[in-house]
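W.,

You were right to be curious about this one. When I first looked at the sequence I had no strong expectations either way, so I just let the prediction run and decided to look at it fresh. Below is the sequence, 337 residues in total, followed by the output.
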Amino acid sequence: MTFDHPALLAVGLLVAVALAWAALTVARRRATALAAAGVAASGARRARYAGIWLTVAGIAALGFAGAGPSVTVPVSHANGTVILAVDVSGSMSAADVAPSRLSAAKTAAEAFINAQPGNVEIGVIAFEAGGLEAALPSTDHKTALTAVRRLGTGGGTSLGSAILAALSAITQRQVVLDPGGSTPDIGYWPSATIVMFSDGQDGGAALTAGTGTAATGPSGGAGTPITGAAAAVAQKAGIHVDTVGVGTVEGTTIDVDGYHLFTALDPDTLKSIAQATGGAYHPASNASELNGIASSINLRLTVTNQPLPLAGAVSALALLLLAGGAALALARTGRVI
């Protein structure tokens, strides 16, 4: 328990102690005088002092309330930071999810933003070969919505760079991997979540010699070493990465710089990222499934200690005690004091 004005508490208690001492002194003198006169103190006479004791208690309570007491209580909030990492690589222009993977992902991201309470900070990361911060984490969800709507496709893909960019947005400092292979310590952020919308293509397309065709099919779930290392950083920091698979495993072909690029959803890579960080993978092969992602991703509640002022309650108690003391004194002696 803490007090805003501890000096007032001391003053109130001193006044209450002084009144209590005076009441005891008067009671003893009265009892001595009655005993000398041969009159035994009756219960009725002793009861007349009840009003005085209630008054003393009320004054002590007033001093306590005036000191501004407060206690800290744990309060749970559905707050925290959410970073939406949206894949804007060339493969996201594929139309196996109508009208395109990116358009469907943007629709789902907007639905997710609209579903979050106002005290959740939301940031947006657009990623292709690297990660680009499109909107800083903020409770201004309109800014996040605007950033999502501006996204367009182009370039390769690096899921690891996207995770690092999202971690940088959460911590508000640049997060880079240690060349020596150790996992950097970025602190512990249990109320932060990364939601990654991607088709799982990691590392970009590799041209097949002599065919004029590039293949970016499933990688078998391992992703690149950078992606695994970035996921380890998030896991160490207590940050979950929920992944949303955008596209179909059957895939489709798109034209990129004169090449026919076959692209398909790689759920294994996205699952591995989610599992490594304690998050969840959400398959979504069409726009209707993507629209339900907002309700299927659960943000964690955080518990914070907040001060609970007690002055009002103690003041009410003091008034009750003073009123009770006055009523008893009036009933017993015909006087309030």
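Here's what jumped out at me. Residues 6-36 form the longest helix (31 residues). And, maybe more interesting for your project: The chain has two domains: 2-73+306-333, 79-300.

Coffee later to discuss?

I.
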